Amino acid sequence: MPFRALDKLRPASDRAAGYLLVAPALVTLGALSLYPLFYTTKLAFQAGGEWSLGNFTRLASDHFFHAALLHTLVYGAVALTLEFLLGLALALLLDREIRSRSLFRAILLIPMMLPPVVVGVVWRLMFNPDFGPINGTLRSIGVATDGLTWTASPALAMVSVICVDVWQWTPFVMLVLLAGLQAIPREPYEAAMIDGASAWQTFLHVTLPLLKPAILIVLLLRSMDLLRVFDQVRILTAGGPGFATEMISLYIYRVAFEVNFDFGYAAAMAFVLLIMTNVISLGYIRLLEREESL
Amino acid sequence: MTARAAKYALLILAVLVTVAPVYWMITISLKAEVDQFSSPPKWFAFAPTLAHYHDALFVRSFGRYLMTSAVAAVASTVCAMVAGTLAGYALARLRWPGRLDRRLSLWILSTRMFPPILSAIPFFVMMSDLGLRNSVLSLVVVYTGMNLPFVVWMMRGFFREIPREVEEAAMVDGDTRLGALWRVLLPMARPGLAATAIFCLIISWNEFLFALALTQTDASMTLPVGIAGRVTQYETKWGVMSAAGVIAMLPILIFALAVQRHLVRGLSLGAVKG
Questions:
Q1: Does A277 contact B114 at a Cβ distance shorter than 8 Å?
Q2: Is the pLDDT of residue A236 over 70?
Q3: Which of A52, A214, B165, B244 makes the best surface tag, with the fewest CB within 10 Å?
């Protein structure tokens, strides 16, 4: 056994083995994340081959970018709130004594596993003003649907895409919070009961504090995903009608690959998005660091 | 008893809201055009036909997109699993100077925080320079990088759950460290390995942005790109679109059922143990 002699020299050989074993992963990640990051930075901070902040000063006066930023924040904030409240409600519901809990769970998690593009197709069919089942059902109970064009209407498009996000991602929030709830030991509940706490008091002073780590993690994960939303919105509205649902990622894609092929400017916008995401993910890593398991 | 009834009523409502839209797409994929456009909508009573599936797979190019998606997903999963499992093992088990393992793990995790649109531009330039644009190879490379941090973190977690004594016993019995990894640890981590691999398959299969930026030809595009290209066209063939959607969805549903138990853990990168 040739390796055996090496193994006898524990600490030194462990170190060598360690470097050797992580090398393929580190090289791949270096090429596929460090290099892109440097390249994007270079693109963003250069104009005409020279270092410049031109791309960033342009951002300040680009109304389309401001609108996309605002849309993304509104989309993110509303979807996050709804997903959290609905997800928490469903998790609390499923945490009770429920027959065939795992069956309910399995069905409820279907949307979040679907390819986002398929989710887009599903909801284009649902929202179709003429033959979609939403308007069809409304008509059959006597509601006039003339103005209800959903994704094609400037007023309703944002509501529609938010609904789709809530439909797709509430199950994820539910799943993580349910896991958190089921990890809470019984004793604090028994103590609260002995103290004569009401159901609401127990929820507020026992469940919520103990669920906090799970809540923070799920909020952070969702926030990061919401900030970079692209797939379903591209299929559902492509940012339209007009500019009503244009998100940051959609606008960057358009600038980089469809209209101007302006990589430098697109890179500058991507950089801003990265900084926004980083502020959030720093919180996430802090949080992870506090966990014992790390 | 009324509280109990309300509880189940709410759950059933949630199930209906979840399932109805997907079910509707499935019915459209099976309906002749007369039934698709009928008002009021037909949820159950229609004569099913497989014509749209035949059309999607054999007349249009969705069969080809399906193959491209499968190749990209499987090849990138294999690459990410090999490199990621080795790194995950080393970070979970070996001794590192000055907590280097922790810093490396966090750095690896942080690469996953990049918004995809940020990487899409350099990837596009990179693949153009290498002459790999519009090839499935470009997606294999990109998806490997995308899945790698995930595999490292998942496998690191699974390896940590196996008691050290197990591999020490194997090493006392004369195995080398790598021998113990291969013969003892990997078989014990098999459920974790399988779950992680299935996650990679799902993530790659569902991926859209990179595929959209990197593959624009009929011969190289994946199923999501193919579907997206058709759905935004002026005149949409809803039956064919829906059939393609069902085809893209089916493998995912089967896989998702298989990893249900590990779902929470996988989706939170191991932060929450489900």
A1: yes
A2: yes
A3: B165
